[in-house]
């Protein structure tokens, strides 16, 4: 596993040595529910990193400029802005509480000095503008310095307000609120490559929005059966193609992915491609339906492949081959014999996400016990790493971990029975251009990077 | 026999989870409900086929029984998913009704007594509950758990074992008493099934409130 991914080319995954960079969040043992991180996302340049949590907050970290006096600390991420994106609400018509938990954050491509992002909870999507202010206008005619209106009779002369420098302030302001379009719980949002529209998906429907228009959206997929008793599958995730603005995919609880082309019809109920792998009848169990449900689908940066995550594995599909995935990687196959207890303790319903490296050469996804897995697509090698505060000294290398699957446990191996299922890594993100990863472990955000040569 | 027991255990667990996900903050999740119902269906199929293998005489009954739990499921989903209440007769969600199995009128027509006495004897043996129906056991336990504040769902299995006896003793009576007391206060007639869903959904909102209120809510939920 050792050895650097030399040559300056950003190789992926385990061929490089990962080292600890930073950890954010409280050290406390008892974690407040509201502080649990529920989504992590880099922006297009990778200079900003946003997290959302179950308390409805969004925290944005900004990468510091390289510091020449400390050459080893390559741009650390520090808090840039924190704001309350969603508040708990109550739906009086349905007598239902709406959680403030941030389900997804998606950045918009940057077009001016300000940054924009979409954040969503179960029902409402919000467009936020994050901008800097370091100047302040002074000397208004109609109001004084405190903002109070001046007595018009005392205004004897007109003056031109002046911009005065002030301490840098980062403002987050809600620009658009897209509400009342989802009956079920929103699981995905995805910004289109046309930079003007985005989609939002709930359990049964996908809507298409214009970023400027909040009072209407177009329903592009609706799989709600007329009779709900005939319901057999739900939408679990959806994403736009990174380059073709007419193409999007959505995954289902049956383990299939449908690719739709918005040019073919306004309502994309008929897919243009259907990705499905035949089930292996020998591995059927009570829980087959649950573990085959896809928890996340992501296009590669190139747009040629997509990756799907189900409970036990992660698969890479070539968009040109619908019959089976081109790669299947087992994430934690040793849990297959433990499905019953995982059903009992509800872990089987966990929704693991997955992400691509900047060069598409490696993929990453989470597991239990604060372990996360990386798969190098070229060398076909994989590695298990751990996000932990132990050994979290700057630049300390991450030691590959191994789970003992039957037989005699070797030194440094951990047995399946001693895995901590309360520590799970569901959300991870990979910097779009460099080997920097952000890993959310409950209320902590770990940032790792490859070792500098 | 082993397989049958396991299937039965998973069925019980599923019903318990279905019932409990109604209490979940943010409302019932369609994906989870669907998955629970699928697990329950495959467990039921296995259970029934195991029974066939054991040369049970009442095989013809099984197809009649099969649709029931699925109905429970989709009803639940619909109730929350704002869809119109389906075909009349039994609009209120079933896990609640079955709890009152000994008294409720609809249960005889439904799942509880349908499995023959032999089945219920087996259930008793499996120490899950001494009631007749799968639905009966979990809902009682669920209520007990509520009492201890909405517990983490991960603790489900541990709590599943010991409490049924006490739960049964304490609650149905209390619920009955409270219901008699408070039915007059409710603006809907207590006989009308719509009483149940609002009470249940109001629950999350009442979470921070004091115990008395919780007891009330529980009592109302029971009806």
UniProtKB/TrEMBL annotation, chain A:
Highest taxon of the lineage: Eukaryota
UniProt xrefs under InterPro entries: PP2A_PR55, PP2A_PR55_CS, WD40/YVTN_repeat-like_dom_sf, WD40_repeat_dom_sf, WD40_rpt
Single GO MF annotation: protein phosphatase regulator activity
Keywords: Repeat, WD repeat
Position of the signal peptide: none
Keyword Transferase: no
Gene3D superfamilies for the chain: YVTN repeat-like/Quinoprotein amine dehydrogenase
Entry GO CC: protein phosphatase type 2A complex
Matching PROSITE patterns: PR55_1, PR55_2
Family: Belongs to the phosphatase 2A regulatory subunit B family.
Protein name as annotated: Serine/threonine-protein phosphatase 2A 55 kDa regulatory subunit B
Lineage: Eukaryota, Metazoa, Chordata, Craniata, Vertebrata
Automatic annotation (TrEMBL), chain B:
Pfam hit, one: IER
Bias-annotated ranges (Basic and acidic residues): 67-78, 96-108
InterPro entries in the cross-refs: IER
Region of interest (Disordered), residue spans: 55-170
Lineage top rank: taxon: Eukaryota
Family: Belongs to the IER family.
Record's protein name: Immediate early response gene 2 protein
Species in which this protein is naturally found: Callorhinus ursinus (Northern fur seal)
């Amino acid at each position: 596993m050792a050895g650097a991914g030399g040559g300056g080319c950003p190789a992926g995954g385990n061929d490089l040595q990962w080292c600890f960079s930073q950890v954010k969040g409280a050290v406390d043992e008892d974690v407040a529910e509201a502080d649990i991180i529920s989504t992590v996302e880099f922006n297009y340049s990778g200079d900003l990193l946003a997290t959302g949590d179950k308390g409805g907050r969004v925290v944005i970290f900004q990468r510091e400029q390289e510091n020449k006096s400390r050459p080893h600390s390559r741009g650390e991420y520090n808090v840039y802005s924190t704001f309350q994106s969603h508040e708990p609400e109550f739906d009086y018509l349905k007598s239902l509480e709406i959680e403030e938990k941030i389900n997804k954050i998606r950045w918009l491509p940057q077009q001016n000095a300000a940054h924009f992002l979409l954040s969503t909870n179960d029902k409402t999507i919000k467009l936020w503008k994050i901008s800097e202010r370091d100047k302040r206008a002074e000397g208004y005619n109609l109001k004084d310095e405190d903002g109070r209106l001046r007595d018009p009779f005392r205004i004897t002369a007109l003056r031109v307000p002046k911009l005065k420098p002030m301490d840098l302030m980062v403002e987050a302001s809600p620009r658009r609120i897209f509400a009342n379009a989802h009956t079920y719980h929103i699981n995905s949002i995805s910004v289109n490559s046309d930079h003007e529209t985005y989609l939002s998906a709930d359990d049964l429907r996908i809507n298409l929005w214009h970023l400027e228009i909040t009072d209407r959206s177009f329903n592009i997929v609706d799989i709600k059966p007329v009779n709900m008793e005939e319901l057999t599958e739900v939408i679990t995730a959806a994403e736009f193609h990174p380059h073709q603005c007419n193409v999007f995919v959505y995954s289902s609880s049956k383990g299939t992915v449908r690719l739709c082309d918005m040019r073919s019809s306004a309502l994309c109920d008929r897919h243009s491609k259907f990705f499905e792998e035949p089930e292996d009848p020998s591995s059927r169990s009570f829980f087959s339906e649950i573990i085959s449900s896809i928890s996340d689908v992501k296009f590669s940066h190139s747009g040629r492949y997509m990756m799907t995550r189900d409970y036990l594995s992660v698969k890479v599909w070539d968009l040109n081959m619908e019959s089976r995935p081109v790669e299947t990687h087992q994430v934690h196959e040793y849990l297959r014999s433990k499905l019953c207890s995982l059903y009992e303790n509800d872990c089987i319903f966990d929704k693991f996400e997955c992400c691509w490296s900047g060069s598409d050469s490696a993929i990453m996804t989470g597991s239990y016990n604060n372990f996360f897995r990386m798969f190098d697509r070229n060398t076909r090698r994989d590695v298990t790493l751990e996000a932990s505060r132990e050994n979290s000294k700057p630049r300390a290398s991450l030691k590959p971990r191994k789970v003992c699957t039957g037989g005699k446990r070797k030194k440094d191996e951990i047995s399946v029975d001693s895995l901590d299922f309360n520590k799970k890594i569901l959300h991870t993100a990979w910097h779009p251009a460099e080997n920097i990863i952000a890993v959310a472990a409950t209320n902590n955000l770990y940032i790792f990077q490859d070792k500098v040569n | 026999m082993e397989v049958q027991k396991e299937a039965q255990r998973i069925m019980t667990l599923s019903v318990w989870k279905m019932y409990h996900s109604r209490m979940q903050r943010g409302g019932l999740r369609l994906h989870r409900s669907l998955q629970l119902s699928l697990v329950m269906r495959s467990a039921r199929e296995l259970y029934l086929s195991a029974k066939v293998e054991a040369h049970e005489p009442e095989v013809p009954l099984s197809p009649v029984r099969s649709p029931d739990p699925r109905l429970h499921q989709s009803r639940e989903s619909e109730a929350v998913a704002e869809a119109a209440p389906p075909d009349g007769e039994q609009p209120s969600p079933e896990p609640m009704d079955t709890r009152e199995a000994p008294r409720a009128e609809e249960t005889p027509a439904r799942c509880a007594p349908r499995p023959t006495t032999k089945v219920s004897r087996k259930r008793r043996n499996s120490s899950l509950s001494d009631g007749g129906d799968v639905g009966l056991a979990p809902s009682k336990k669920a209520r007990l758990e509520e009492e201890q504040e909405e517990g983490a769902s991960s603790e489900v299995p541990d709590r599943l074992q010991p409490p049924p006896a006490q739960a049964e003793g304490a609650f149905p009576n209390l619920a009955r008493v409270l219901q008699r007391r408070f039915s007059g206060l409710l603006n809907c007639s207590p006989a009308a099934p719509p009483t149940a869903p609002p009470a249940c959904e109001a629950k999350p909102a009442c979470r921070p409130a004091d115990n008395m209120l919780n007891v009330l809510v529980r009592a109302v939920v029971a009806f």
